[in-house]
Amino acid sequence: MIGALAGDIIGSAYEFGRTKSKDFPLFGPESEFTDDSVLTVATAQAILTDGDYRKATLEFGRRYPNAGYGGFFLGWLHSAEPKPYNSFGNGSAMRVSPVGFAFDTVEEILREAKRSAEFTHDHPEGIKGAQATALAVFLARTEWDMDLIRTEISGRFGYDLGRTVETIRPGYNHDESCQRTVPEAIISFLDSYSYEDAIRNAVSLGGDADTLACIAGGIAEAYYGPPPHEIRAKVKEILPAVLWEITEQFCNLYGLLV
Question: pTM for this one?
Answer without folding.
Answer: 0.97
